[in-house]
Structure prediction request, 143 residues.
Amino acid sequence: MLSEFKDFIAKGNVMDMAVGIIIGAAFTAIVGSLVADLINPIIGLVMGGTDLTNMYAVMSGTAAEGATLEAAREGGANVFAYGNFIMAIINFLIIAFVVFMLVRYVNKAKDAAAAEEEAVEEAPAGPTELDLLAEIRDALAKK
Prediction:
């Protein structure tokens, strides 16, 4: 059973998946920072200084007017945090777009490599050694 497990782990697909998960986690942190540090301020500026992450509606309980989402939650209010949901959608769209661009680039690179291989395979092989010797024999016979 241990050797079977080693064979499973050693397969390329499992290792590729592990690398993908690790890179994905790091990529998520980068995109989170991109949204929080660059996109949120721009959206806030366009919306007149509103911070999307602090947009919520109080469902039950009380929250001080103008309190942040965290302050409202700490105060015991049950909140509908639609601003966080909007930010999650923005994060998803950015991640999906960047992954799309990466996959598109990789597919183009694979297609270019495949086309290059086809061009090499389709190139005429040229005369064989036997064909060249036959031509030399025929040329000598004509003289």
